[in-house]
Automatic annotation (TrEMBL):
It is an enzyme of class 4 (lyase). SUPFAM superfamilies: PLP-dependent transferases (SSF53383). PROSITE patterns: DDC_GAD_HDC_YDC. It comes from Mytilus coruscus. Gene3D superfamilies: 3.90.1150.170, Type I PLP-dependent aspartate aminotransferase-like (Major domain) (3.40.640.10). Its cofactor is pyridoxal 5'-phosphate. InterPro entries: PyrdxlP-dep_de-COase, PyrdxlP-dep_Trfase, PyrdxlP-dep_Trfase_major, Pyridoxal-P_BS. This is E4.1.1.15. The modification N6-(pyridoxal phosphate)lysine is found at K315. Keywords: Decarboxylase, Lyase, Pyridoxal phosphate. Signal peptide: none annotated. Belongs to the group II decarboxylase family.
Length: 503
């Protein structure tokens, strides 16, 4: 393809593109790349195409050995394109309507366009002088998100994933209570404890570990049968910590738990936090998108009373990975806690409004532009487009629940759901579960992993499984892809029944 335009050799490589003053090589290479990507996107939306072509790690390494090794000499652009094809061939098609394995699924074309433009611009988000358009866009999008929470004088920042956003929440809580820790460290602070639901995300433990609070000082609060934090237990555990001369710092409430999709009761938790003078952080990484829906924003009733919130648009809003925001009610906290004032970068005598120099609000120096793709999607869909998209997820979830109830070999973990998480068992006829003994549960625990292995080998569908407390392994489907139709959900149930014949 390229050899007929190479002037010096038969090898057309990236060095030739850099030296090509006409731009012909670059255009031809990019056109071929776009054609390759378009073919991949088309296959993602074909129900007849596989979700994945699974191979065990040692097998895949052997299959791709010819293109995995990094050599000393440059490769031709033909070989580079071949590497791209080979890579995509063995990728999991996360935009496929039958990929239901994670909370972030689907593939938005406008979002992809935003990601491509972001890469071409290759801009660092730390100062306005380097990223003038993108820092303005970030401010506009964050203001929009803050408005949905009900914070009209707050602040925020895009962070590399929900775990880091949760870290920012805990970091801000500690700084407001102990501002000198920034300078003198954690010595002589005693035991600082944080409280979170037993079904919250593990990133809360990681944040405590990284901040020197310690995992042992993360106190898990019991949940009810629907996965919601028990507020009476929370209050009791806070009182006990005070009696033990510990300092209760923060409560992490979850809006949209990873497994059951439960929404903790924010109003009641906010009452407790006010009673004991504690920071309330809300992990709305999954469920935050429900704020965009008039029908379902009630799930986050009381969110305006929180002090900080994590919201991941790459989940319910369908933005390409990654896209996560940490949002705070009080303006100025992020700068106060993180500022170090590197004079080579954050000059105080600049000729423009330096409030748009956001880098010193971050624990990072360089920060990726995660906002543009979201802004472009929001511009294209509008508020109403996102509202309809999220309402669709809840409608499809209720449909799937109703279909599961019709099939005798399927059993729901929760009969009534809040979020678009549907959890269920497939129970083969060979397994009988009684209240007298748990032998049946022991056998049932092996069913979901066995079916998952079969579905990955076949490649037609992909859903995840997990245990929870004393419950044996069960499947979880989280609906966050607007391309999903009712027929796709019917196919998933039918395919599980078909795969179960091989057990």
């Amino acid at each position: 393809m390229f050899s007929n335009v190479c002037l010096q050799s038969d090898l057309v490589c990236v060095l030739d593109i850099q030296a090509d003053k006409t731009g012909e090589l670059r255009n031809r290479f990019l056109n071929e790349l776009v054609r390759l990507l378009d073919n991949y996107l088309q296959s993602e939306h074909k129900r007849t195409s596989k979700v994945l072509d699974f191979h065990h790690p040692h097998q895949l390494k052997e299959i791709m050995e010819h293109c995995l090794i990094i050599d000393q000499d440059p490769k031709s652009l033909e070989e580079v394109l071949s590497d791209c094809r080979e890579t995509l061939k063995y990728c999991v098609k996360t935009g496929h309507p039958l990929f239901l394995n994670q909370l972030s699924t689907g593939l938005d074309i406008v979002g992809i366009a935003g990601e491509m433009l972001t890469s071409v611009a290759d801009t660092n988000m730390f100062t306005y002088e380097v990223a003038p358009v993108f820092t303005l866009i970030e401010d506009i999008v964050l203001t929009k998100m803050l408005g949905y929470i009900g914070w009209y004088d707050g602040e925020g920042m895009f962070a590399p994933g929900g775990a880091i956003s949760n870290l920012y929440g805990m970091l801000s809580a500690r700084h407001k209570r102990f501002p000198r820790v920034k300078y003198s460290g954690m010595s002589n602070k005693g035991d600082i404890v944080v409280f979170t639901s037993e079904q919250s995300h593990f990133s809360i433990n990681k944040a405590a570990m990284l901040l020197g609070i310690g995992q042992d000082n993360v106190i898990a609060v019991d949940c009810d049968s629907n996965g919601k934090m028990k507020v009476d237990v929370l209050r009791s555990k806070i009182k006990l910590s005070i009696a033990n001369q510990q300092t209760p710092l923060m409560v992490n409430a979850t809006c949209g738990t990873t497994i059951l999709g439960a929404f903790d009761p924010l109003e009641k938790i906010a009452d407790v936090c006010e009673e004991f003078g504690m920071w309330l952080h809300v992990d709305g990484a999954w469920g935050g998108g429900a704020l965009l829906s008039d029908k379902h924003r009630c799930l986050l009733k009381g969110i305006h009373r929180a002090d900080s919130m994590t919201w991941n648009p790459h989940k319910m809003m369908g933005t390409p990975l990654q896209c996560s925001a940490i949002l705070l009610k009080e303006k100025g906290v992020l700068l106060d806690v993180n500022q170090t004032g590197a004079t080579y970068l954050y000059h105080k005598d600049k000729h423009y409004d330096t409030s748009f120099d956001t880098g010193d609000k971050s624990i990072q120096c360089g920060r990726h532009n995660d906002v543009f793709k979201l802004w472009l999607m929001w511009r294209s869909k509008g508020d109403n487009g996102f509202k309809d998209q999220i309402d669709l997820y809840f409608t499809l979830s209720k449909y799937l629940v109703s279909e599961i109830k019709k099939r005798p070999r399927f059993q729901l973990v929760l009969e009534e759901i809040e979020g678009p998480n549907i959890c269920f068992w497939y129970i083969p006829s060979s397994i009988v579960i009684t209240d007298e003994h748990d032998e049946g549960k022991t056998h049932l625990n092996k069913v979901a992993p066995s079916l998952k292995a079969l579905m990955m080998e076949k490649g037609t569908i992909m859903i995840t499984y997990q245990p929870l407390g004393d419950l044996p392994n069960f499947f979880r489907i989280a609906i966050s892809n607007p391309a999903i139709k009712k027929e796709d959900l019917d196919f998933v149930l039918n395919e599980i029944e078909e795969l179960a014949k091989c057990l």
